[in-house]
Amino acid sequence: MVRCALPCLLSSCVWVLCCSAIWSDERPPNLILILVDDQGYYDLGCYGATEVRTPHIDALARQGIRFTDYYAAAPICSPSRAGLLTGCYPRRVGNESWVHRADSRFGLHPDELTIAELLQQNGYATACIGKWHLGFHEPFLPRNQGFDHYFGLLHNLDPVETVYFDEQGGVPLLRNDQVVARPADPAALTKLYTDEAIRFMEEYQDQPFFLYLPHTMLHNPLGVSEEFRGSSDWGEYGDATQELDHHLGRLMQSLQELQLDQNTVVIYASDNGRGPGRNAGQPIQGHKLSTWEGGIRVPAIAWGPGCGLQSGIESKAVIRAMDWYPTLASLAGIEVPADLVIDGRDLLPMLQGETAFVPPPSRQLSLAIKSRGQAIGAREK
Q1: Is residue 12 included in any domain, yes or no?
Q2: Would you name the residues annotated as active-site residues?
Q3: Containing domain of residue 341, as a range?
Q4: Assigned domain for 231 exists
Q5: For the segment 158-209, what is each residue's pLDDT rounded down to a tens digit?
Q6: What pTM was estimated for this model as a whole?
Q7: What total number of domains does the chain contain?
Q8: Which residues lie closer than 8 Å to 84 by C-beta, 6 or more apart?
Q9: Three-state DSSP class for residue 70
Q10: The CATH number of the domain where 314 resides is what?
Q11: What one-character DSSP code corresponds to residue 378?
Q12: Which of 89, 159, 254, 273 has the fewest CB atoms within 10 Å, measured from its CB?
């Protein structure tokens, strides 16, 4: 065991030193985290779907790493997002139960250090463009959670949610503190989010940026613009999927035109499995709201050939949403604070082809679980 551990330790040290050397001479990479709502494991061409055509997402998979065994943090929206942004199991950060509705008194606690805050504190321009769903009182809002800029919906558009806004004229589409449209039009959101994301990249192209793009689609009610209506063999769900693919293509084209594609990492994933009642094709059991595979096993792709990530790889490693937190930090050359307890594992050595397995989480995790759990319990009281 000692003979084996020493080379591994030396290898890790060399990797860290190399990363530090790279980022000391040039700016760190831009980071884009795209989160699609309610997209199931099967529901892209690169995952087997024949009812839809997703050439741009498929190209991302061909040029990057496609994960066959990727798991969301939870089978429902708010807990899943809490896990993604904190690197923690949702229960650890007090967000394990159901979703935050418009009347929710709670949200993602401001004491949590989100990945956006960590990047922001280290020189990144940050934006959240899309669906938030992690609390609606001032302390919980995106710009108090590490994002310089926000554009999107704080809520869902389903009937359970929109009833809270009937008297005000509907759920508002916001740019920071300003209402851009009311009620928000589901059919316009995918394009509007992408337009805003491209503007953000144009504005901050001369400094490293973190763009978190959590789409409202494919959550009910589905929104499809006239251009894509009837374009798939899978009804509105397929049409909305193809519209998402088209606008991802626009985003990637803009990266190329801005000459940022060689210094940008793009992560594409779903927040949980597809909704109940959409049963076509899926080779695994279950759906959103369940802990069967279909509720939490979802598509995920990592792309960044210009940043040393492997290309054309299918990875069978079991990874989860919480892993993106330390991985994005490593890509940015940022050390996660030593006293911060997270459940995610740094995937970067695997993404760069140095190892085929996922390294174990830090030893500090097991040492600090009890004290962190007590702190969360105290805050909830």
Answers
A1: no
A2: 77, 133
A3: 26-380
A4: yes
A5: 888 888 898 889 999 999 999 999 999 999 999 999 999 999 999 999 999 9
A6: 0.89
A7: 1
A8: 33, 35, 73, 271, 321, 322, 324, 325
A9: strand
A10: 3.40.720.10
A11: H
A12: 159
